Each structure stands twice: as C-alpha cells, then as structure tokens.
Amino acid sequence: MTIFEGRVKEWDMADLRPEFAENGALGVYVSVPFCRAKCSFCNFASGVGTPVAIERYVESLCAEIGSVGKRAESLGAMLPRKADTVYFGGGTPSLLEPAQLNRILAAIRGQFDVAADAEITMEAAPGQISDELLKAALRLGVNRVSLGVQSFIDREAASVGRSHTGESCVAEIARLRRAGVGKVAADLIAGLPHQTDASWQRSLDAAVASELDHLSVYLFEVDEGSRLGAEVLGGGARFYAPEVPNEERASAMYERACAFLPEHGFGQYEISNFARAGFQAKHNRKYWERAPYVGFGLDAHSMLKIEGPGLGAQGPECAVRFANADELARYDGREPAEITRVDARGAFEEALFLGLRLVEGVSVAALRQRFDAGWVDEAAGIARELAAGGLMVVDGERWALTSHGRLVSNDVFGRLLESVAV
Hints:
15 helices, chaperone, 21% strand, Arc Repressor Mutant, subunit A, pyruvate-formate lyase- activating enzyme, 2 domains, iron-sulfur
C-alpha cells in the first residue's frame, strides 16, 4: 500500500467472559494474513499460507480473542461490552474455510455483545470466494464484502500479480449482489504500472457502472516495503517498475477520481473513501473518530480509552494503543509487541490529524470542550495560515481540508502538529 507450533486448548468462551466498561460501541478487527499469491505492490504483513498454517493461526487467533479481557485489564484500559462493527482484513480472509470463519465469529460473540445490526465486513479477492464460504458468511452475519480490485484493466491487474480481469470483477460484484450481500465495496489504486489517464478513467467508469456501494482510492506507495516499491526506489526493472507513473501523474489521477466520483453518486467522505448515500464504512470511521477498537491477529492494532493518574485533566480522552507482532514467527496471540500510552496532549494531536482526514473535518467547539483551550488556540493560528494558502477551510465552527489540502495532507498535518508540540 497493513506458524505456530503446538495446539491451543479449547474452552467454553462464555466461562471466561470478563466484565466490560461501558464506553461506546467497539469495533473489532480480525487479521487473516494469507493470500494465494502476494501482489508486487503489497507492503502488508501477509503471505502465502498452507492449510496447516492457516489452521494453526486460527487456533492462536481464537485464543487471543478469548484473552482480550485480561489483556485490557493488564493495560488499565476500558473495554466496551458492545461491538457494532467486525472487520475481517488481510491478506485474503475469503481463503478461510467455513468452519474456521464460524469459530472466529463464535469466539468474538463469546466475548462481546455483537449488535444485531452490526456491520460485518470481509475483504476478498475477486474470484476467490467459494460458494460454500459465501453461504456460510451470509449465514453467520457477514453483510459487507470489500473486493481488492485495484484496477479493472487486465494489463494493469496482471502486472502486479492480480489473477482477475475487469470482466471477472464485474461478474463477481453481480454475483455477490445475487447472493444477498447487502453492501459491496472495492479498492482502486492510482499509480500502477502501465496506468494512463485514459485507462484510469476506464477503471472509474467501470466502478460507477457496477453495483458497488463504496469505493476506496489509494495512491500507490513507493516504499521499500513492497517488491515493486523497492524496484522503483532502486531504479530497477523488475515488476514493471519503469512503467509506474511518476508522482505528478498519479496525483492527477487521484484528483480526477475526487472530481469524477461525486458527480456519479459516490460522495467523498474521507481522503481515500467514497460512498453512495448511506453506505459509508462504519468500521473505518471509528479510526478517524478515535472510537475504541480492538484488533486480533498478525500486525493487528488496537486503541482503547484509559483513565489514570498522570494522564492529564482530560482523562477520558487518554488512550492506550497496542499492536501485535508483524511477523508470523513472532505472533502467538499472547502479548502485544508494541504499547503506546496516549496522554491528553497526544489525544488532541490525534483528534486533529485523524479528524481532518474526514471531509467534514473537525468541530472547533468539540475540540474546545474536550481539550485545553490554549492548545486549540495554538493550532488555530496555523490553521488560518493554511487556509490562506488554500489548504484548509477555517470558520468559527469547523476546520476542514480543501481538495488540494487532502492531496498534501501529510504536510498539512505536520504543520498543525508543530504548532501544538510540547
């Protein structure tokens, strides 16, 4: 762009159900880091897995879910009882066997009160959802499928290791609809090898002509974390690296999507996300609104609110972020590999750069209510300078990024955070 030796003892999850703090509905993320083949642009912690490795992973995953209450308690975090979103990400979660999906969801429901109308999402690769898994997923409550399309153009998809064609993607979307999937989403990437302005437009046309409800548009990340990115940075020729559009062209493609998609029913609500009315991703909004969420599995991240001495006057805004190991050999589902405590000042910074990812921006009144007014005043001065430069919209009620500000959002966030640095 985010296996195990021995067997885990099975138990009745209900017997280990912990006491939960009521702190708003929780989002649950489940990492399934296995694919049939790893795409050249991928920099996630994922890889090809054997059936035995996947089964061992599911055992460790269920054990981790079963111990979530003890983990939260050890971190001094508040863990909500109710969950209203569950998101299976990857990797390719659709490679799970129906029985494995059933066990994971049973473990989640054994620990949380999953709302009857919860949004339950499964990521999938086009053409890699078996009829059996699809039927099981729908029976188990999955009501949203997000397809890793990346491009509707055959040559572009093949160049990065995707096995689908544009035609098969359209057919897959229609198949999911016929099966009864209530919400269907897809991803596109601007900046893939061989991509041109004309081919990008054909992908956008195909997306809006399909039965999609939601579309995510990402810029190809040129970094050494992926095989393709490493070739581009190193001036290599493998993975069609010389055919990758330059940053200026890729940015223009992104801007084209931002102009085109809202004109065709997909309103932009976040830097990379577009949706038809009523179909915004509820789970992903939790990240940008600093709502509590907990992640299970390889490289999964969590954020829970926390209160305690030394965290500042605005205790309820303080949090603990923790993440699991990002290598299969080191993941065992027992202890987080990384723990970061977020005090009130850090929470304010997060509220700025996460909230400004949303097109609606952040409420100034809410910032003043939740945080030190002096911090808000410090940021306000920089916000006005950024507004004068055409990067932000600033009025008495709300701060938001302009369309150009969203394109250079990292620079904007950097300027704002400099203003509130201790």
